[in-house]
Recover the amino acids of this structure.
C-alpha cells in the first residue's frame, strides 16, 4: 500500500489559488470553510514563498490523538479521515493541529461549532464509497475511483504534488537536482517526522 | 506582525544554517536573496515555540498561520499532563475520603440533637448554593468525559451512544456555564463578608479543625476550612468561568495560542476543584452529622451549631433572646430557649 502525502514545491507555487478553488468546487465545500489555502510568507520581500497547505495526513496524527470521541481513523493508504456522525464539534483537533486544517461550519455560533470538516485527500469518509450520503458529508471520493486529489491534479505549475510519499519525494528530488535549488518540503518535518533528503 | 518580523530576523541568520544542512543550495544566492529552507524554518519555529505565518487572500486572517508547533505541546498537555493530574487528583481524593471514613467515621453531634433548631442559611442562600452545585456537577461530569470518557465510557457504550452522550454533554457544558457563573457572582456577594480571614481561623487551622480528634476549635459563621472552600470556589470558579467563555467564543478575544492556554488553565483548575468539591460533598453528607440540614432545610440543630460554629451560634442565640425580650408574647418557632 502507498503512503499518501502532500508536497508543495514552494519554488513553483505562484499563488494562483486554483487548488483552493478546485477543492471547494469538487467537494461543494460550504461558505466559510477552506479545506485548502495558500499562505504567502515574506510577502513582497526577498525570499517570498507561497505554500499551498491543507491537512497533511500526519503520521501519528495529533487530531486523532486528542479527539475525545475517537472519531478519526487512518486508511490503508495512511490517509487520516474522520466520522462526522461521531464528531461533537469540541474544537480539540483544531487546538492540536499544527496546520490549522480542521474547520467548523459555525465558528462564532456559541461554541457549538458544528461537525468538523477537513481535507479528505479526496478519499471521502466512512460512508459507502461514492454514495450520495458520502458526498454530502465529505465530498467526492476520487481515491475510490482510482484518481488522485484534484488540487494537485489541477495545479498549473505542478507545485502541489499528491500521491505516494516515495514517488512524490523522488519527483521533488529530481527537480531540485536539475534546477540546483529547493527550499524543502513544507510541513514534512512536522507531519511525517522526516524531510526529503536530496 | 511581530511574528513576521521575528521570522524575517530569523531568516537573515539562516543562510549559513541552510548551507550546512546539505540542501541543494548549489546555485549561488543572489545578493539580498535569502534561501529559505522549509526544514530549518520549521525546526527553528518548533524550537522557539513560534509559528510560521504569512498572508492569505481568503477573508480569514487565522488561515494565515501556516504551521503552529504549539499544537504538539497542547497535545502533550491534554493527553499526558491533564490525564495524570486529573486522574490522581480525583481518584486520590476519593481514596483519601474512603480511608478517612473507614478510620474516623461520621463526626456525631456532641450530646446528640437538642431538638431545637436555628436558621443557618436562608432560602436565597440555599437556592444559590444548589444552582451552583447542580451546574457544577453536570459541568464536572461532562468535562471529565472529554478527557477520560473515551478510555472509560467508550468501550462500555460503543461509539454511537458515547458520541451522542458526549454531544449532549457538550451542550450542557456550554449552557450551564451561565447559571454557574451567575451563581459564583451571587455567592461572592452573599458570603464574602463572612469569609474574610480572622484570627479565629488561625486558631482553627492550628487545631486542624478538630478533624483528627481533640477539642473542636471555635469558629464563626464559617470556619477556616469553609472559608478556604469559599475562596477556592469563587476565585477558582471565576478563572474557570472566564477561560471557559474564551473557549465558548472562538477567536472572539484570543488567537489559537490564547485558546490553548485558556484550555490548559480551565481544565487543570477544574480537575483540582472537582477533587476539592468531593471533599466538600463528603463533609456535607456522610462526614458530619447534622451538616446536611444546613443546606436542605436551612435549620440546624442548636447543639450542632454550638459544636461546629460556637461563636456564630452564641451570637445568633443572644440576638434571638434579645429580640424575644423586646417583643414579649411573640414566640418564634424554632427559636432556642
Amino acid at each position: 500500500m502507498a503512503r499518501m502525502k502532500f508536497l508543495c514545491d514552494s519554488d513553483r507555487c505562484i499563488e494562483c489559488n486554483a487548488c483552493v478553488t478546485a477543492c471547494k468546487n469538487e467537494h461543494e465545500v460550504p461558505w466559510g470553510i477552506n479545506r485548502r489555502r495558500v499562505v504567502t510568507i515574506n510577502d513582497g520581500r526577498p525570499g517570498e514563498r507561497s505554500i499551498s497547505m491543507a491537512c497533511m495526513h500526519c503520521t501519528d496524527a495529533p487530531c486523532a490523538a486528542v479527539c475525545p470521541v475517537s472519531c478519526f481513523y487512518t486508511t490503508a493508504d495512511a490517509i487520516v479521515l474522520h466520522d462526522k456522525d461521531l464528531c461533537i464539534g469540541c474544537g480539540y483537533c483544531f487546538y492540536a493541529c499544527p496546520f490549522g486544517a480542521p474547520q467548523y461550519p459555525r465558528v462564532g455560533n456559541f461554541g457549538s461549532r458544528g461537525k468538523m470538516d477537513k481535507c479528505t485527500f479526496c478519499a471521502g469518509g466512512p460512508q459507502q464509497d461514492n454514495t450520495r450520503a458520502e458526498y454530502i458529508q465529505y465530498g467526492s471520493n476520487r481515491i475510490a475511483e482510482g484518481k488522485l486529489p484534484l488540487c494537485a491534479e489541477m495545479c498549473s505549475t505542478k507545485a502541489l504534488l499528491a500521491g505516494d510519499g516515495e514517488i512524490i519525494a523522488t519527483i521533488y528530488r529530481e527537480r531540485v537536482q536539475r534546477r540546483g535549488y529547493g527550499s524543502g518540503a513544507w510541513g514534512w518535518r512536522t507531519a511525517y517526522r522526516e524531510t526529503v533528503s536530496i | 506582525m511581530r511574528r513576521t518580523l521575528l521570522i524575517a530576523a530569523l531568516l537573515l541568520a539562516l543562510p549559513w544554517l541552510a548551507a550546512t544542512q546539505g540542501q541543494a543550495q548549489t546555485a549561488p544566492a543572489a545578493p539580498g536573496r535569502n534561501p529559505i529552507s522549509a526544514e530549518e524554518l520549521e525546526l527553528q519555529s518548533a524550537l522557539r515555540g513560534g509559528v510560521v505565518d504569512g498572508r492569505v487572500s481568503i477573508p480569514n486572517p487565522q488561515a494565515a498561520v501556516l504551521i503552529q508547533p504549539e499544537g504538539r505541546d497542547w497535545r502533550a498537555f491534554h493527553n499526558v499532563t491533564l490525564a495524570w493530574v486529573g486522574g490522581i487528583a480525583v481518584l486520590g481524593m476519593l481514596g483519601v475520603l474512603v480511608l478517612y471514613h473507614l478510620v474516623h467515621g461520621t463526626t456525631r453531634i456532641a450530646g446528640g440533637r437538642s431538638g431545637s433548631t436555628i436558621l443557618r442559611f436562608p432560602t436565597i442562600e440555599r437556592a444559590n448554593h444548589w444552582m451552583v452545585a447542580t451546574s457544577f456537577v453536570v459541568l464536572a461530569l461532562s468535562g471529565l468525559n472529554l478527557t477520560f470518557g473515551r478510555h472509560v465510557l467508550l468501550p462500555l457504550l460503543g461509539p454511537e451512544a458515547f458520541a451522542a452522550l458526549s454531544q449532549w454533554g457538550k451542550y450542557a457544558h456550554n449552557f450551564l456555564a451561565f447559571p454557574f457563573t451567575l451563581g459564583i457572582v451571587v455567592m461572592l456577594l452573599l458570603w464574602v463578608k463572612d469569609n474574610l480571614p480572622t484570627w479565629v481561623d488561625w486558631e482553627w487551622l492550628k487545631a486542624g479543625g478538630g478533624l483528627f480528634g481533640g477539642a473542636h476549635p471555635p469558629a464563626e459563621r464559617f470556619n477556616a476550612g469553609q472559608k478556604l472552600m469559599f475562596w477556592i470556589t469563587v476565585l477558582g470558579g471565576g478563572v474557570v468561568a472566564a477561560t471557559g467563555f474564551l473557549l465558548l467564543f472562538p477567536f472572539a478575544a484570543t488567537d489559537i495560542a490564547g485558546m490553548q492556554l485558556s484550555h490548559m488553565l480551565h481544565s487543570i483548575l477544574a480537575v483540582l476543584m472537582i477533587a476539592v468539591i468531593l471533599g466538600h460533598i463528603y463533609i456535607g453528607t456522610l462526614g458530619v452529622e447534622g451538616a446536611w440540614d444546613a443546606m436542605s432545610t436551612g435549620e440546624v440543630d442548636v447543639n450542632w451549631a454550638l459544636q461546629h460554629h460556637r461563636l456564630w451560634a452564641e451570637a445568633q442565640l443572644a440576638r434571638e433572646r434579645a429580640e424575644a425580650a423586646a417583643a414579649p408574647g411573640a414566640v418564634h418557632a424554632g427559636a432556642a430557649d
Observations:
- Residues 11 and 34 of chain B are 7 Å apart (CA to CA).
- DSSP finds 13 helices and four strands in chain B.
- Chain B touches chain A through 68 residues (CB under 8 Å).
